[in-house]
Amino acid sequence: MRYVIRVLLVTPEVRRAAPSAVERAKIELDRALGASKLLVGEAGASYRADDSDVLGPSPDVVVLASSAEDVQKTLAIAERHEVPVTPRAAGTGRTGGAVPAAGGIVLATHALAQVKDIDRVDMLAVVQPGVVTGALHAMCEKEGLFYPPDPNSLDMCMIGGNVAENAGGPRAFKYGVTREYVLGLGVCLMGGHALHVGRRTVKGVTGYDMTALFVGSEGTLGVFTEVTLRLVPKPPQIATILALFTDVHACGAAVTRVLGRGIRPRCLELLDAKTLEAIRGQVSIDPRAGAMLLCEVDGEALEDETERLGEALSQGEGVVDVLVAQDAAQRARLWAGRRALSTATRKLARHKISEDVVVPRSKISELLRRVDRIGEENATRHLTYGHAGDGNLHVNFLWDDDSERPKIDRSLELLMRATIELGGTLSGEHGIGVTKAEYLPLEQSSELIELQRSIKKVFDPKDLLNPGKIFPAKGHKAC
Amino acid sequence: MRYVIRVLLVTPEVRRAAPSAVERAKIELDRALGASKLLVGEAGASYRADDSDVLGPSPDVVVLASSAEDVQKTLAIAERHEVPVTPRAAGTGRTGGAVPAAGGIVLATHALAQVKDIDRVDMLAVVQPGVVTGALHAMCEKEGLFYPPDPNSLDMCMIGGNVAENAGGPRAFKYGVTREYVLGLGVCLMGGHALHVGRRTVKGVTGYDMTALFVGSEGTLGVFTEVTLRLVPKPPQIATILALFTDVHACGAAVTRVLGRGIRPRCLELLDAKTLEAIRGQVSIDPRAGAMLLCEVDGEALEDETERLGEALSQGEGVVDVLVAQDAAQRARLWAGRRALSTATRKLARHKISEDVVVPRSKISELLRRVDRIGEENATRHLTYGHAGDGNLHVNFLWDDDSERPKIDRSLELLMRATIELGGTLSGEHGIGVTKAEYLPLEQSSELIELQRSIKKVFDPKDLLNPGKIFPAKGHKAC
C-alpha cells in the first residue's frame, strides 16, 4: 500500500532519451529478445513505482529478462541508442531506487529466478537476482544452512534488489547485512559487457574489493545476473524475550547492559512509547510500559544465553516486565506486537513516511529526545521503532492532509541533521535512491560525492544506468 | 629475516621521477616539514624492503610523517613535482606492497601512532595508522573489548598496513578479516586532498562503499591518516584442542564434520605431514600423525562447545589422538608446535617462499594432492600449513641453491594455476603487491583488471601513488 505519491520531476541533469532513439531501441529490443519479453504503454505503467512515495515517468519499454544474455543484449542496445536503463528486481525498495527517473527502459530481472547451487560443504549458494529472499531462506534451512539477511519485505523482495541496496533486517545485528554475505557477482555493465567479480571462497584479497563496490550501489554501476552468497549453519534453536520499560531511556540502558556483557542476541527490536500506543488496540501491553524491547537469541548454548539475557534486561532501573517464550506459540505471541506494527500505524493517518537513520548505539536515547523536540516544534506526529543493537531506527512521520507536507519535509530535514550531528548516517538499510539524494551533502563532503560520481563515470560514462539516483542534482526536486 | 632477495627492476611502465623534479620536491619537503622528518641517502636504505623477497631501488627521500598534515603536505608536493610516493606503515608485508618500486618518496606513517579513542559503549576504536596491532589488542582487552584480526606479525605490524592489505590471521575464520572491522577512514589522496569515508555506526548504506574500496587497495588509492575500527566484547574464556590424524585427508574430513555441526571455532590451523616433520625436532608428536589440526573455541558456552568440538573431531576415520588443554600451561604446550613452525622451517633450507592461496574448503585435500604432484614433478621441497576453516593455505617452497630458482618459479606458477582451477583465489591475506602481480590475469579477466586500473586513475591520474603494485605490467619482471 502506498500513501503519498510524489511525482518525480525530471530535471535537466536526468536526461531523457530522444523519442527517435527510443523507437530505434525498441525495434532492436524486439528483434533481439522477441515481443513477448517487452511491455509497452499501459502494460508497463506499474513499473513507474517502487515501495517509496515517489512515482517516476512511465517507462518507454519494460524488458522482462529471463537470462543473462537478455540483460547483456538490453544494455548493449540501450548504450548504442543512449536510452537510460533502470534495473529492477522485485521493486520493494523504499527510496525510489527502482523508479525510472528518466523513463527509457526498465530492465526487470525477476524472471531470472534460478537457485543454481546450494553447497553444503562450502556453505554457499549461487542464485540469480530474481530469487525471492524468503524462498532462499526456506531452501537453505532445508539443507541445514542459514542465509541471515531478513529485510521486512522478505516474502516479496529479491536477492538482486537486496544486493543493490545492501539490505539488512532485524537479524543484521548479530549476523551483519547483505554485504557480509556476497562473495561474488556476475554483473553486466552498461554497454553489455559481462564481468565476474569476487570468488567462491570466504577469504580473498586480490585487487580492489569490486564486489563491495557493487553491493549497495543501487543499480547505478551494473546489473547483477548471478550472486554467490556465503551461508552459515542453521541455528538449531531460537528463544524470544520481550522486555517492557517505563521509557526509552531505561530501554537504552538495558541495551547497553546486554551488549556490555558480551551477549549477542540475533535481534534487539525497540518500540517507543508512541509505537506502543499505536499497537495497544491490537495486542495487550502493560499500561506502565513506555518502551518495548523484543530480543531473540539463537545458537547452541541457548538456555544459558537466554538466562544471561534475561538477567541483563532485568537488572536495571525502569524495568516493567521481562517475558521469556518457552515454545513456538509463546514466541508468536511475543512477536504479535511487532508484527501488528505495520497495520496499526497505517490506521493512524492517511500518510506515513518511514525513515531509516542510524546513530551510534550510545546516542539512541538522545536521538529519540530530539525526534520528540522536532515533533513538538513542527507539530508533526511521529513514532519510532527499529534495530536497537546497531542504532538503526525507523522514525515514522504521520499526517493526514496534503497541506501538512511542508512541515513533514522540514521535520525530515531536521531529523537528518540531528542524525549527522550525533555521528550517525542517513540510511541503515534502505539506501539513498531519489528520496534521500538531496540530504547526501549533509553527511558527505562535496569532494567525496565528486569522487563517487567519477567512479560512476568509469562504469557508465554516459550516465545511462539508473540516472538520478544517490547523488544530489542541482535543481532536482521531488514535488 | 629475509631469505631471497630479488632486486626489482623498474620497467618503463613504472616511471621514475626526473632527478631535477626529485631535487625540487626535496627542497619543498625540507621547507614544509623540516629536515628532522626526512631521511636521505644511506639513512633511508632500509626502506627499500618489506618482509617479501623483493628489494626496490633506494628511495630518494623518506618522509617520517607525524601528523595528518605531514601526509597532506607530502602528497601535495609529490604531485606537484610528479614524484612517486610509496606509503608504508611497519613494512611487514609479504608481497612487496611497501617496496618503493619507482624510488621517489617513501611516506612512512609509523609515527602516527596515537590511539585517539576506545569507546566501550559504541564498541569502537579510533586510531592512527602507526598503531601496532598487538598493542591495540592489549589496550582493547584491558577495556573488556576485542579487536579480532591477528596477522602473524601482530607484534610489529601496524593498523595502517593491515587496512591496506586487508590482513587476516587465524582468528579470521570465526571473526572475519580486517575489512569486517573498518567502519571509517581518514584518507589523504594524491595531491594532498583530505577525505573522510565511512562512519562510526555499524550499519550504513549511504553512497558507494568507499571504505571497502580503500581496504585492501595496497596503498594505491590513498594514504590512511585515521582508522575507525569496530570492536566486539572480549571473549571471557578460550579452550584449545589439538587433533592428530593419519593424513591430511582424514584431517580435511574432520574439518567438514566440525563445520557441518555448526561449531565455529575461532581458529582451525592445519599442519601437513611435511610441516610436522619439520617441527618434530622441537616438539614431540605422535609418530603415527601425518596431519595436525589446532583448534580454539571461545565464547560463553565454552565447556559445551569444547565437548562438541572434541566429539566432532574424534568421530571419524584416521583419528590418531585428540587432546584438550585444561589450563593456560597446557594451552601453551599445544601451541608449541605451531609456534615452533617459523624457526623450524627456516632451518630446513636457505631459502623459503610462503604462498597464501585460498580454495573452497571442500578442495583443501585436492589442493594438497596437487601440491605434492607439483613438488614431485619439479623436484621441489614444500610444506603446507594454514587456516583450514576458510581454505587459506600457506604453501611453502624451500630451496638452498640459487640455481633452483627457476624450478621454484615454475612450481609457484603451477600452484597458482591449480588454485584457480579449484575455484580458489591467489591471496587470502597477503595481497598481490609486486610478487603476485604477474599472476593476476590467471584469476581476473582483462576487462576486470582494466576496470580497476580505471578506478585507480580516478584517485591518482598520474599513477604516482604506489606505482607498480597489484596490476601486471607488460615487460615487468622481477629477476
Low-confidence stretches of chain A: 475-479
Biggest interface, CB < 8 A: A-B, 88 and 88 residues
- Mean pLDDT value of chain A: 92
Q: Alpha-carbon distance between the termini of chain A? A: 20 Å
How would you describe this structure to a colleague?
By secondary structure, chain A is of the alpha+beta class. Chain A contains 14 helices and 21 strands. In chain A, the strands form five sheets. In chain A, strands 14, 15, 16, 17, 18, 19, 20 and 21 form an eight-stranded antiparallel sheet that branches. A five-stranded antiparallel sheet of chain A has the order 7-8-12-10-11. Chain A has a four-stranded mixed sheet with strand order 2-4-6-5, with helices on one face. In chain A, a hairpin with a 4-residue loop joins strand 20 and strand 21. In chain A, helix 1 packs antiparallel against helix 2, helix 8 crosses helix 10 and helix 11 packs antiparallel against helix 12. The longest helix of chain A is centred in the C-terminal third of the chain and has 21 residues. The radius of gyration of chain A is 23 Å and the shape is globular. The two termini of chain A are 20 Å apart. In chain A, 57% of the residues are buried. At the A-B interface, strand 11, helix 6, helix 7, helix 9 and helix 14 of A face strand 11, helix 6, helix 7, helix 9 and helix 14 of B.
Topology at a glance:
Two copies of one chain form a homodimer.
Chain A: E1 6-7, H1 19-33, E2 38-40, E3 54-55, E4 61-64, H2 68-81, E5 85-88, E6 105-108, E7 115-119, E8 124-127, H3 133-142, E9 145-146, H4 159-165, H5 172-175, E10 182-189, E11 193-198, H6 210-214, E12 223-230, E13 232-233, E14 238-245, H7 248-260, E15 267-271, H8 273-279, E16 291-298, H9 302-314, E17 319-324, H10 328-348, E18 351-354, E19 357-358, H11 364-378, E20 381-387, E21 392-399, H12 405-421, H13 440-443, H14 446-459
Parallel strand pairs in A: 1-3, 4-6, 5-6
Antiparallel strand pairs in A: 2-4, 7-8, 8-12, 9-13, 10-11, 10-12, 14-16, 14-17, 15-16, 15-20, 18-21, 19-21, 20-21
Helix pairs in contact in A: 1-2, 7-9, 8-10, 11-12
